[in-house]
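Q: For a teaching handout, I want to show students what a protein-ligand complex looks like in token form. Below are the inputs, and the small molecule is iron/sulfur cluster. Please produce the holo structure.
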Amino acid sequence: MTEVVSIKIDGRTVAARTGETVLRAAERAGVTIPTLCDDKRLDPAGACRACLVEVKGQRRLQPSCHWQVQPDMEVSTDATSERVKRHQNVLVSMYMADHRLDDTGLPVETAAEPGNALRDWAKSSESLPLEPVDAPRVARPGDKNPYITFQPDLCVLCARCTRYCDEVEGVNAITLTDRGSATTIGTSGMTGLLDTTCELCGGCIDTCPTGALVETKSLNILPRDVEKVRTTCNYCGVGCQMDLNVKDDKVVRVTSPEPGTTLNDGNLCIKGRFAYDFIHHQDRFTEPMVRGQDGKLHPTTWEHAIQTAAEGLKRIARKHGQDAIGFVSSSRCTGEENYLVQKIARAAFATGNVHQCSAT
Ligand code: SF4
Ligand code: SF4
Ligand code: FES
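A: Here is the structure, written as tokens, with iron/sulfur cluster included.
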């Protein structure tokens, strides 16, 4: 049974629940602990060691993302522990030694949301000037998938992408492969994603803390370059929340809101995440059209378009009977709109031939 207990973090009394991790209790209390491999949707892996804290009575520093709260526990973060601070400075320097850096010597800014976590951590640390290390990690050279790019020199091997693919998506398309400094994110036989079980959900992009995995189309667009507009995906009836990333009045990317804040818990499918080109497509209908005697579509008013459709449907019913008419509605309509489609079918045209495409 879960109990509410009291622990101390940096000398402050914090209420926590038994079974929860020190990291979650610290987050609730507004205490910042750096993390790379933590994602609320995944089982803790304790892989990156960024989140180590001092726990009174423990000889070694412990991973706060994994270590569970106990009554009267006393925890020190880098704010009060020299040992933790020293550990963090050394560790972040080691990560930076084989990471792509910018002109100022910091990990480069990337498209990662909400930014490159290693860069943020490095900014708040006193990193040591270590010699760059050669890490011969490779991407998948023959990967022709159109959506996802893997940049091995930005990968910190936190395994969030592979764990997401396994634990959330249940697909296991990607895995940690090779050994030592050559360890990389690969697929079976290092084939492209299209030759695996990958569903191109893009969740691995979403969870990647450094931008090593990014959307190909918007590789160089930084979070600070865009304005976000929260909306509801209109591809199916689930109602996933998504953020349209808008730059110069154009949607340039779709991202998922932070896990735990919306019903889809930070997850999207291939359509919601990547299929947004239609918004600005030149062939998109933006006004009602009616086909003229010349066989071509011409812009018209809504009244004329609706009247033309109604007359055409009535003509078919008169000539061939009600069952010659069928209505197919779209999963991109709202529930209310779909209700109205069946109402028109049944009440106005006396047919039960009505279907909605999300049933397929
Ligand atoms: S896109 Fe989705 S299914 Fe494909 S590798 Fe990434 S997480 Fe796995
Ligand atoms: S690609 Fe990103 S999520 Fe995957 S291991 Fe590398 S840094 Fe972590
Ligand atoms: S966040 Fe705890 S070990 Fe990575």
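A: Two things your students might notice: The chain has a mean pLDDT of 94. The chain is about 20% helix and 20% strand.
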